[in-house]
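Task: sequence design from structure.
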């Protein structure tokens, strides 16, 4: 008898849950929304009421978007479609959390993957001159700031660097100008050989380059760290846009509408502010409000015309109506 009792005692010491009711688990399902971009359909059936439900987009250790639904009174079931998240990476997961008086229950979905759009903007007429690299998609190309740096474009006395809408045609880790005997590491070529202004590109600059002001014969010189980082980040066919508000070269007028300049600058300022907020702990919405989403839907012709112009190396024209929409968007996002 004593031996049987010892065996039973050993069993209960290993399995202390015997004799207890098993803890009920919540049922949570999540799918990318079929009706709107950058959003998720979430269905929850919980074992007991919860007061807060949240969904956040994560990639590695970074959180790129979070939306919380505060429920008063608490509920045990919920079906929601999140608002459109501002930015979603190429590879990501979504974490759904339920808050029951401070007790958090979470479930992770994914990983998911999605196509990305990478865009290179060069502010030729700003001071200092800058290259700004953005990641997004065709619905919202101005998603997040990936890279930025001061650069140097062409001096007007050498013909300058034309404004325009292009795309990356070719990349070379090492190129050389045999005529001038210049090395041009990490080169991106973006103009067709048939263009009258010749072949232009972005490449690593030379020792002594004063970045931020025009220095070159036509190409865009980049700081060594930025040239290497851009080469690793960029892709063939990535849109390349040179923006400005003045005519310096004979080819500017045929490529770029000067009215677009402030439109681009407003969108880029928004991206920079968003990026700074994410990495500084500032409270800034990581999703779009309903009014913002409606304006972005109205901006679709604007975005699609830009991308199409880059693909076809042709002029883009937005029209006054779209400029007004972008202005309303900038006001909603708090862009100065």
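Answer:
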């Amino acid at each position: 008898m004593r031996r049987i009792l010892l065996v039973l005692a050993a069993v209960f010491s290993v399995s202390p849950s015997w004799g207890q009711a098993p803890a009920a688990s919540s049922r949570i399902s999540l799918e990318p929304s079929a009706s709107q971009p950058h959003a998720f359909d979430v269905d929850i059936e919980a074992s007991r009421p919860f007061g807060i439900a949240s969904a956040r987009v994560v990639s590695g250790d970074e959180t790129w978007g979070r939306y919380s639904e505060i429920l008063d009174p608490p509920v045990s079931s919920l079906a929601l479609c999140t608002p459109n998240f501002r930015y979603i990476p190429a590879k990501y997961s979504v974490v759904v959390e339920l808050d029951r008086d401070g007790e958090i229950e979470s479930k992770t979905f994914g990983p998911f993957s999605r196509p990305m759009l990478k865009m290179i903007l060069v502010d030729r007429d700003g001071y200092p001159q800058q290259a700004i690299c953005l990641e997004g998609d065709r619905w919202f190309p101005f998603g997040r700031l990936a890279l930025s740096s001061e650069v140097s474009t062409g001096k007007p006395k050498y013909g300058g660097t034309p404004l325009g809408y292009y795309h990356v045609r070719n990349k070379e880790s090492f190129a050389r100008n045999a005529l001038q005997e210049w090395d041009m590491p990490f080169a991106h070529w973006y103009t067709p050989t048939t263009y009258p202004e010749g072949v232009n590109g972005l490449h690593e600059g030379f020792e002594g380059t004063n970045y931020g002001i025009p220095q070159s014969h036509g190409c865009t010189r980049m700081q060594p760290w930025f040239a290497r980082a851009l080469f690793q980040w960029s892709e063939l066919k990535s849109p390349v846009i040179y923006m400005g508000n003045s005519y310096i070269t004979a080819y500017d007028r045929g490529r770029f509408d000067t009215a677009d300049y402030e439109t681009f600058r407003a969108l880029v300022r928004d991206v920079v502010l968003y990026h700074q907020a994410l990495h500084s702990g500032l409270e800034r919405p990581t999703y779009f409000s309903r009014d913002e989403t409606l304006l972005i839907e109205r901006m679709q012709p604007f975005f699609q015309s830009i991308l199409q112009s880059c693909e076809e190396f042709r002029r883009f024209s937005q029209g006054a109506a779209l400029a007004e929409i972008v202005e309303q968007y900038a006001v909603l996002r708090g862009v100065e």
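The radius of gyration is 26 Å.
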